[in-house]
Design goal:
687 residues; 3 domains; 26 helices
């Protein structure tokens, strides 16, 4: 079907018109410059499509491919971004606020044609060209029409084509016949780094150095790393009593440069009877969730550019659009219902070590207003409900593991090997020690967490009440299965009675740095918040609301956990990478608290047991208990862990009904009898 698109009259006319505008934009001044430069970009993408079809990707030299890749992204990289219409500051300065915001969004949306060219997705390529041509057709005697007309054009483009963009997104998530990335990974010569350019992602120094480094490792090391990753996935089904044999596909998510490990993972999953699906992080705003990348992806050519466009949905996020997109999503899942039912869930390989990033907040960038924020929240909630209907939570699982990238510094190779060691620690030792901790925690009605020094955390977390202590438990004994590495016990707190202040001096969440982050809780819900990133206090609040609360007025504390992996903590301190550790590892290096949903979302009614045979009963809270009557109020579709490091802790103690306290950690050391072994890593290291 895609091949026939090029033969249609629409395609031929669009190509001709884009070429004409690149020569003569039919407008003067800034508008003329915008249309000419944007048409030139589209013309370059048409040329890219021709070059790919001619086989240049496999014939070109490394230098030629690097130049080609640089050309595709050069307008948003480095200093060039200052004068790019994709930069809302520049677009607004040249075109005025209303026009600049709209046309800057269009620039960002048209960048998706890079992916469409590489994957041969001509229908989506065509509708992008037609959006551009529609806006150009609105010119009146070479002048821009009223901004509202352009806004309407964008709105109807996004809304009308939901059946194309949303359906394509659903299909690529569940259909293994869409094998673009998998074919590259399994068939390319991974020793020849030219393969990286075949994905169509931005290829930076990180990806090149990562792939080159993995090529220096012996095959047995690669096999070991991949096996830890895939075995964690398999064990996740086993320990929860879910039948993996019913499933046919698994989704692998990762960052470019790790293909040698991913190839082995694909083989391992095939041995389990699972065909691997690798889909790209979304490139169209209609399928994006702000700056979060879900899928496989390359380096960001410009993280400020990503941040500048995270609020672009402000151009279309009204209630009618939410209904339109929700309808398209349900129709798409219905079309691919059999494939969806056979999907087992994601296996995620995260990265860490990137330079901490604090974005510039631009007045020129689009932002969701209060009503649109509520619409976005509702859209996310409805999408999660539909996804769970067709890929039931009680039948799927996941696994997550993380590795450093070369950006972490000169000691990268040592840090990588240390991370492999951390990811393969003996779970039996931790399981035994953590059980002693759980036995103590199960005797209390709350846990009190108190910071030390400049950390002014003072928080009481209420715990569920056991009906039958001989058969039930409050905390899960988490070892190395879905959540690698080993090392935590966690629960879903009782919201009523969970009160106080959570404070961390610095933390890195979802790619963004937060300094002096403070959250207040009243009956388990966030009641106030602040941080010290910006001089303007309101800007700090907006930063947290957008990127931690995800536009919700408040969020519950969905998880409380005590991390026990002192080996990981010591490694972070030794290499001075505490602020750059991923939350996946960082959450194991102290107590952590998750904002949003519990760890058991969508599967609260599926029995879960600890290794000692006791059933975990703390799987919901007052919010998630609403799932049967109103799922939109039950789930928040986010889960962000915030960790306090051991050295910022005065005490963690179990509070018992008779008023007594059982200390777990005191002055940064484990003091509960039977857990002292965890201090060996701390005591043997000189910081």
């Amino acid at each position: 079907m895609e091949e026939s698109v090029k033969q249609t009259e629409r395609w031929i006319l669009a190509v001709e018109r884009v070429s004409e505008i690149a020569e003569d934009p039919e407008a003067k001044g800034a508008a003329g410059e915008y249309f000419q430069r944007t048409a030139a970009f589209l013309k370059m993408m048409l040329r890219t499509l021709q070059r790919i079809e001619a086989g240049e990707l496999t014939r070109a030299s490394m230098e030629e491919l690097a130049d080609w890749n640089r050309e595709l992204y050069e307008d948003i990289v480095g200093d060039a971004y200052t004068h790019s219409f994709a930069n809302p500051d520049y677009a607004v300065s040249r075109l005025g606020k209303e026009y600049g915001q709209i046309l800057s969004f269009v620039c960002a949306e048209l960048r998706g044609t890079i992916v469409y060219a590489f994957e041969g997705r001509l229908t989506e390529f065509l509708i992008c060209m037609e959006l551009f041509l529609q806006l150009h057709a609105e010119l009146e005697e070479g002048q821009l029409p009223p901004a509202e007309q352009l806004r309407d054009d964008v709105y109807w483009f996004v809304s009308d084509y939901c059946d194309v963009t949303v359906t394509a997104r659903v299909r690529e998530q569940v259909d293994p016949s869409l094998s673009f990335a998998r074919d590259i990974i399994m068939e390319a010569d991974l020793q020849d780094l030219r393969y990286l350019y075949r994905f169509g992602e931005y290829v930076g120094d990180t990806e090149l150095r990562m792939s080159a480094f993995l090529n220096t490792l012996p095959e047995e090391e690669i096999v070991k790393i991949a096996s830890v990753f895939t075995e964690g996935y398999r064990i996740g089904f086993e320990v929860t009593g879910k039948d993996l044999t019913k499933k046919k596909t698994v989704n692998i998510r990762y960052c470019l440069g790790f293909e040698r490990i991913i190839r082995e993972a694909v083989k391992n999953f095939a041995a389990m009877g699972l065909e691997s699906i690798l889909y790209r992080a979304a490139v169209s705003r209609v399928n994006m969730r702000e700056t979060n990348k879900v899928g496989y992806y390359g380096a960001s050519p410009n993280r400020q550019y990503d941040y500048d466009h995270k609020g672009d949905a402000a151009l279309f996020m009204d209630s009618a659009f939410v209904e339109r997109r929700t309808g398209a999503l349900r129709t798409a899942f219905e079309e691919y219902r059999d494939l969806a039912r056979g999907h087992a869930g994601p296996a995620v390989m995260e990265i860490f070590g990137e330079t901490p990033f604090v974005p510039q907040v631009k007045e020129s960038a689009l932002k969701l207003d209060e009503k649109q924020q509520k619409n976005q929240v509702r859209a996310n909630s409805l999408a999660a409900q539909i996804t769970n209907e067709y890929i039931p939570g009680e039948e799927r699982s996941f696994t997550i593991i993380a590795f450093p990238v070369p950006d972490i510094g000169a000691q990268f190779a040592d840090i990588f090997r240390e991370t492999v060691r951390i990811n393969t620690l003996d779970y039996r030792t931790y399981q035994r020690i953590q059980q002693r901790m759980i036995d103590a925690l199960d005797t209390g009605y709350a846990v009190h967490i108190l910071g030390s020094g400049e950390n002014h955390t003072d928080l009481t977390v209420a715990l569920a009440k056991l009906r039958d202590p001989e058969k039930e438990t409050i905390f899960e004994n988490c070892v190395a299965d879905v959540n690698i590495p080993v090392g935590e016990v966690f629960t879903s707190p009782v919201l009523e009675g969970t009160n106080g202040v959570l404070h961390v001096s610095g933390v890195y969440l979802n790619g963004l740095l937060y300094q002096d982050l403070e959250l207040h809780f009243q009956d388990g819900m966030v009641s106030d918040y602040r941080c010290g990133n910006y001089e303007d206090e309101e800007e700090n609040r907006r930063y947290i609301r957008e990127n931690v609360l995800y536009h919700h007025d408040t969020l519950p504390m969905g998880e409380f956990a005590i991390g026990t992996n002192t080996t990981a903590y010591v490694a972070a301190r030794r290499y001075h990478i505490e602020a750059r550790m991923p939350i996946l590892i960082a959450e194991k290096t102290g107590p952590h608290f998750a904002l949003g949903d519990t760890c058991y979302s969508w599967e609260e009614d599926t029995p879960t047991f600890n290794p000692d045979g006791k059933q975990i009963i703390a799987k919901e809270n007052a919010c998630s208990a609403l799932r049967r009557e109103d799922p939109e109020k039950a789930y928040f579709n986010c889960h962000t862990d915030i960790t306090i490091p051991y050295d910022e802790l005065q005490e963690i103690a179990v509070v018992c009904g008779d008023g007594s306290r059982i200390p777990i950690i005191r002055e940064g050391r484990f003091v509960l009898p039977g857990t002292e072994e965890l201090n060996e890593a701390l005591d043997n290291e000189v910081f």
